[in-house]
Amino acid sequence: MTAQPPLPLVPDGARPIGMAAAIVEDDDGGRVFVHGNLAFAWDAADSATRRFAAASLTRIKAATQFEVAHAFGVKPASVRRWEAQLADSGVAGLLGERKGPKHKSKLTDDTVAAIRRLREGGATYRSIAAETGVSAGSIRTALTDIDAEKSGTTTASDVLPEPEPVPEPTSDASPEPEPGSGSAGGRVPVLADPVDRTGERVLAAFGMIASAPPVFTGCARAPLAGLFLAVPALAATGLIECAHDAYPSFPNGFYSLDTMLCEAVFRALLGESRAEGATRIDPVALGRVLGLDRAPEVKTIRRKIGYLAQAAQAGDWIAAMARRHADARPDQLGVLYVDGHVRAYQGTRKIAKTHVPRLKFPAPATVETWVCDAAGDPLLVVMAEPAAALTSELRRLIPQLRAMVGDQRRVLVGFDRGGWSPALFADLDAAGFDTLTWRKGITADIHETSFHEHTRTDEHGRTHTYRLADTPVELAIGDGPRKGEVFAMRQISLHDRARSRQLHILTTRRDLSAAEIRYRMGSRWRQENHYRYARMHFDLDSHDTYRCGDDDPHRMVPNPAKKPAYQQVEKARRALQHAETVADRELLAASSPPPGATTVLTNDVIDTINADVHAAETALDAALDTHKAIPARLPLSQVKPGQQALDTETKLIHHAIRIAAFNTAQALARTIVTDTGYTRADDEAHTLIRTALAGTGDIIPDHDTGTLHIRLDPLPAPRHTAAIDELCTTLNDTNTTYPGTTLTMRYSTKPHRRPHTNS
Q: Residue 158: is its pLDDT beyond 50?
């Protein structure tokens, strides 16, 4: 016979626990029935017996841990812990102790009220902690409890006697608020569909509207809502404002110039700087951030960038952004770092070759000259001619640098040995700029007695100690209109003990200390860090366009025949030196006979000995004449007919977007470092910003108050959320308006919900 399960003899309203048990809980307590028989009972305040019943059900195999946890309203981990405590210490182990501090909490009602008052006044966690005498963690706890009470969420002290099923959230879970009504209580539908813009798209297709304005739909848990954090920093770069000055007319269409630039910067901040990267980002998710039904596609992005490229105003656009940056951060213009950047080309076009430092050999490439401020943030970029020297680029940049920094300010210009030229140093000094560079070539070492200890404390509070020698030097100007003159400079020497050599820094700045000069010269690597970071995260060296055109056929380039002719000159000189050595040896042997012997040197003998010398001299004169007759430079059409050049205008447009994206990320990271109490900000600020920008959150437009509230979901770690919350406070003080609207940005973060416990 097969065993038949007993009839379920349990009271009405009991919740099943697996196939064999059931539970009844009410105001008087609870009871557990196993196969219809009462097995466990407890009063309402008897939590130990309730835990004993749950642990016992798993021990007698009446139900699984998951089934017991679901019935008792706890997590499976709690049931496992109760079972282990029962096995180790019996029922006494289930009594438990009061969690948390055993002494009186510092978070009294008065302290919590003070914390709330200071926080509402815009104070940071660090200042609140100093004012109230409690830790930053306690402040977060107090504010989390306050936010939980305001939003109606449960806290750690709440008990869930019976879990209730939660309906799956959809866009129809709650009605969409009417425009201008805001969101009652901050409640918005999850992943609400954007406003239908079909009508505007039809009008835009016929050119009947200039563009579609941003319209935001209230939405909870919106992907990529963290990108809204970049809006204030993006506005500070002047990218959009300067673009309207450089491109006063933009073709009618659905996507405006503001929308295209915001989309490009947002995409770059997500690590997809190229237009093709739009295929790897959800267009609807990015469209919610842009205030549209979807983001533009790749073909639209390329077409809009093509409109801008036809205007040929990218250089003026970047220069206007640089002037705005200089006005906003004048403290960072004490030093300007200038350096060339070579971007290798791997395509099939006939592009001019130049030396690629990272590859260590010549290859098809384009050359760019970048100007960065003292912090390494990019200001200006210009396209250089192929194989252009840094000295010529610096001379060409002098008018633009003067227009950027103003007429009166004297700025220190730092560059590497590629710009070594005493004539250039004199020209920079005449133009009102100071020089900062490494000395090139071999020079005598400074005596050890001239070196002394120097210290310098940087902007992060770190102290640097250097052993330096400060001496004056005079350099001879070998070219230019001041050829033959002497230019006086200041030399800061440092001893490189690792390589047993001395390095020398030259400058015309005499009011700064030797340690300050050494620190500023070493800080030039911040520009190299910009190149590296931009290559990794913003595709700095990518091919943003495959368009190209014919290179200037009249551009003068080095004559390739000059080098072989000079090699023949050097070969003739070596042959002459060898012939003279042989002739001297033969003449010495002929004029020094053995003892007792005599010799007579006639003209014929001497002519025979010197015959090879005369022939070598004739060959050298012929080689020199041939080398001199060959022109050093020829038009490009004669040297390399059909050579092409990449489209530089499109590249400069993308560089303007990359400059704005880089400076936006830098500004947010600096705010994390300076304005928050995040302990590892120096190491993790950029990573934290990239994580926050890709995060989710609620979009809450309120046209009654004219605000666009972005309520970000908490990050995985509470300390990360606290840092972003401090960042939100700083961003709220900027009162930034979203581009193309009149809505003022407001930011906040959701509190971390504490795990539910049964006690």
A: no
pLDDT, greater one: 745 or 144: 745
Residue carrying structure tokens 């022939």: 615
- pLDDT tens per residue, range 303-333: 999 999 999 999 999 999 999 999 998 888 8
Cα separation, 518 vs 526, in Å, equals: 14
- DSSP letter assigned to residue 594: P
Query: Would you place residue 86 in the very low, low, confident or very high pLDDT band (cuts 50, 70, 90)?
Result: confident
In this structure, the answer to whether residues 301 and 321 fall within a common structural domain is no
559, exposed or middle or buried, with CB in 10 Å at 0-12, 13-18, 19+? middle
* 594 part of a folded domain: yes
How many CB atoms sit inside 10 A of residue 655's CB? Answer: 25
- Residue 323: give the domain boundaries: 315-549
How high is the pLDDT of residue 99?
Answer: 55
Shared domain for 506 and 425, answered yes or no, is: yes
In a domain, 554, yes or no: no
Q: Where among 490, 520, 549 does a domain terminate?
A: 549
Note whether 184 and 178 are within 8 A (CB).
Answer: no
Rounded-to-10 torsion of CA 638, 643, 646, 647 = 70
Statement to judge: residues 480 and 420 lie in one domain:
yes
At residue 221, what are phi and psi to the nearest 5 degrees?
Answer: 55, 40
Higher local confidence (pLDDT), 655 or 108? 655
365/422 same-domain check: yes
Region of residue 376 (left: phi > 0; alpha: psi -120 to 50; beta: else): left
Using alpha carbons only, how large is the chain's radius of gyration in Å? 38
Q: What is the pLDDT of residue 169?
A: 40
Domain end residue (candidates: 549, 574, 589)? 549
415 within domain boundaries: yes
Number of domains into which the chain is organized: 5
Q: What is the pLDDT of residue 168?
A: 38
CA angle 724, 538, 662 (to 5 degrees): 50
What value does the mean pLDDT take over residues 83-97? 79
Q: Based on the fold, state whether residues 602 and 696 are members of the same structural domain.
A: no
Q: Are residues 685 and 669 in contact, defined by beta-carbon separation less than 8 angstroms?
A: yes
**233 and 350 housed in the same domain:** no
pLDDT > 60? residue 691: yes
DSSP 463-493: EEEEEEEEEEEEEE--SSTTTT-EEEEEEEE
Residue 756 lies in a domain: no
Task: Copy the structure tokens of residue 468.
Answer: 């330096």
Mean pLDDT to the nearest integer, 673-695: 87
Residues 352 and 296 placed together within one structural domain of the fold: no
Residues 250 and 305 in one domain: yes
User: Over 70: is that where the pLDDT of 728 sits?
Assistant: yes
Smallest Cα–Cα separation from 44: which of 162, 161, 156?
161
The residue type of 695 is G
**Distance between CA 448 and CA 446 in Å, rounded?**
6
Measure the CA–CA gap between 236 and 229, rounded to whole angstroms. 13
| Residues in contact with 521: Cβ distance below 8 Å, sequence separation at least 6, in sequence order | 414, 436, 437, 438, 492, 505
For 193, the 3-state DSSP assignment is coil
What CA–CA distance (Å, rounded) separates 637 from 642? 7
